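Private note to self, pasted from the team thread so I don't lose it. Backbone tokens:
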């Protein structure tokens, strides 16, 4: 079941920790960008949780990230 939610973590931190294949090398996990490459006004445009998985869409670039809710809450 999809549930809307709010996050305590800053948007820039969440975006910097995205682990999708566009942001991290799939073979070794190395980050493929520098935090300085991100927009200064990065924001969370939409967030929801679905079965322990948190889905986030960022502005202004529309990037989508997925996080384990237990990891975010730790």
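Design output:
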């Amino acid at each position: 079941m999809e549930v809307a939610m709010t996050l305590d973590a800053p948007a820039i931190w969440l975006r910097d920790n995205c682990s999708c294949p566009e942001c991290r090398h799939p073979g070794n996990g190395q980050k493929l960008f520098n935090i300085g490459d991100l927009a200064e006004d990065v924001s969370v445009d939409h967030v929801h949780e679905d079965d322990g998985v948190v889905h986030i869409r960022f502005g202004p670039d529309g990037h989508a990230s997925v996080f384990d809710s237990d990891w975010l809450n730790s």
